[in-house]
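Attaching the record inline, Q. Sequence:
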Amino acid sequence: MTYRTLGASVLTGAAAAVAARLAYRGLRRFPPGGEKAWSRVNHRGEAVTLLEGPAAVAGAVAATAVAAAFLGAAGGRLSGLPGPERAVADGLPLALCAAGLGAGAFGVLDDLKGSGKRRGLRGHLGALRDGEVTTGTVKLAGLAVAGAASAALLRRHQGGSHLDAVVNAGLIAGGANLLNLFDLRPGRAIKVAALSAALLSTASAATGRPAQGAAAVAAPVGAALAVLGEDLGERAMLGDAGANSLGAMLGVAAAATLPRPARIGLLTGIVALTGLSEKVSFTKVIARTPALNWLDMLGRRAPGAT
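Structure, as predicted:
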């Protein structure tokens, strides 16, 4: 990876962080539909706002779009990528924006209109079997559409078979849904997103695509870290909008940078964890595992603390 490419990725992440903070400040001051519409009760029974999620989405998407426009205006000279890899990078910003906006929009729908009576795949599919179309079901369908559209944008630039397109769509939609399953305690989903981004960057570097890996995760991670303090402080949470959007963008990053065997393996893991979540509480597993519990509690108030 050239220093120019690394610098561009760092600047993109920083821009996403600044944009997310500005968006959060603006949304808190002028909440669409009123503050009450975004207010929820967390695991302690305390009031938090869901506006953190839309702010993170806005920051990540805005920074991605600005970075893409800047590189486009520079004729791609700042990327330092050779021909085939440049083709992947060209399709990456569009796919990231499509995934982030699509997943975020359907997440907002579920945040604002969802009842919470039906949870998980089993709950939503059970409701559908009974003739009830929940907002969660609509959101799952929307995530699938967003995943397919983003995968199509990637394929247009990087090529690949129909199998690649299906796997990539699964990674994007599955990543969006899985990260949301971790948004049950302060900071947890953001920590999972940051660790996933670090692993993805390492894996892409190991396969000879360090520039794409850094560029792909910069905006979503920058935006997520910008609101981490609000999340850990239990003043706000990502909600479906934020978690779905960040997860979808990380899915795009995986789709754009990993070789097919790695992508298939990752998709298998996502499907397995999603299925496991229907029967096993991630929170209980984390609490019983010392290393995971330490990481989960890092920066958080202790149980029972006020």
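The two ends are 46 Å apart (CA to CA). Residues 73-88 have pLDDT under 50 and may be disordered.

More tomorrow.
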